[in-house]
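Lay summary. Proteins are chains of building blocks that fold into shapes, and those shapes determine what they do. In this project we predict the shape from the chain. Here is one chain we studied, written as its sequence of building blocks.
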Amino acid sequence: MEHQIGRLSLLIVEGDLRRIRFDGVEVLRRVSYPVRDGAWGTCPVRTVSEAVDLDAGRLVYEHRFAARDGSFAGVFRAEVSEAHLVLTVGIDAAAELAVNRAGFTLLHPLRGVSGQALTVTHSGGAVEATAWPALISPSQPVFDIAGLEHEVAGVRVAITMAGEVFEMEDQRNWTDASYKTYCRPLAWPLPFALGPDAPVRQRVEVRLSGRGVVATGGAARGGVVPVVAVAMEAGLAEAVLPAFPVQLRLRAGDRVPVVAGPVHLEIVVNERLDGLEQLAADCAGLDVARVTVLTAPYLKSHQPEGPWPAGPRPMDLIATARALFPHAAVGGGMFTNFTEFNRCRPDPAMVDFVTFSGTAIVHAADDLSVLETLEAVPEVYATGRAIAGGKPLHLGLYSIGMRSNPYAVECVANPLRERLAMVRDDPRQDSRFAACFAVGVLAAASAEGVASVALAMTEGPLGAVGPMGARPVYHVLRFAQGLAGARARGLEAGGISTSRGSIVAAIGGAVTLPQGVRGWLLNDRSEIAARGADWLDSPPQDLGGVSLQRFDLAFLTGEVA
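And here is the predicted shape, written in a compact code that computers can read:
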């Protein structure tokens, strides 16, 4: 629910403060207070009680919460006036609980912030003048934080913190559209104990001043539509979808599927490279266009300063890959998130292309957070291009769900198919939501010069096809095949338009199509028919003036005026 307190507005969503605006300018994206377990999973909580008191220009919100398993309980309180927020949180556990994080997390928006001046007060009182990172920082840009001051679109923001030592990370690494100030420092021993002798007691104050100026939307960026592929991997997605470019991940001992057309190989081997030569021989029947080889330890995350795994580093494998696949382009990068790519960067002089992947639910999994990641994807691609030094970006799987977990042994289990962080089986994959998300990624890839990207696996939890047939995202991939290489411009409503055809995705809300357009409408009334893989083979319909509701999609035969 949105609340207005004079010049300040905010949303209260599931106990968190979100989209805090002053004069319409977003100054904080989110204030939350998660507890993260020893594997970085977010401990699920239930609301015990909450109350909102809004009167005479002042809002008081109190949220009492408890862990679903009863291991801890807490209370968050916000006292808000027009230009001043006082936020407190207390968390208690009856018995010692091993956690990696507990307490306030502040998310700062990107618009009007990236690259701008920042003043930091450290815990000892020293003041440092610095700046918010423009390109994505591989490590924490700010350490030892007790206070932050900066300006965004004319609004002066001053934040003070007490009760813990905070630091900041550039969350764009994980495609979150924010910088995150969190506690406690990652260099301190983890996990630590939350318990009777170590409760959480924290306080944050935010003071706002100045006069905000809301920026108007910029012109839609143009670009070229990339090649869109499907990903395959033994145990996750083994079905072959004809007519789609394939990105194939193989390990020693895997059966090599029969795939027609060019293949992008991702090969994972152990530190001794056991089975690599045999695997290369087994791929003799494939048309291998591109190949990247990594050792298994590089599927996990490591800090930029190391320590790095024993055995060959990624660049040590380039010559071997060239010898085994002499007719293929050889790439460098990571098979997990941009985070790992940014922390262990390839040498552009040694590779023919670079690669990395992405997921939308590393830190948060509610619908709003997932859609917000689409703001960060262009900046991820832009930083990737800067690192690539002119070499093309042939990217791995970009999906809502997580293919593998670089931060723990495995993805978080999701038997109830909830919207949870770090899960592979995200319920939205079955829906038009995932299709709209894929369109948003495609639009960013087009604008930022990405050469190719996988937008789904062939089957399974991340698949274009599910138990009931083709999922909505399947049609995004199929339609995009005919657009690859075409000049495109982004659509303000969501999507891309080319002379060969257009995709309109109602990501932000209802959209009315212009007169004179023809194509196919994917909405709640056509979803059952669209389970057929040949749905786009039906004759196009007159869609001029049709209103798309949120998460509807239109596949149009021509350009949108």
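What the prediction tells us: The domain at 223-485 is CATH 3.20.20.80 (TIM Barrel).
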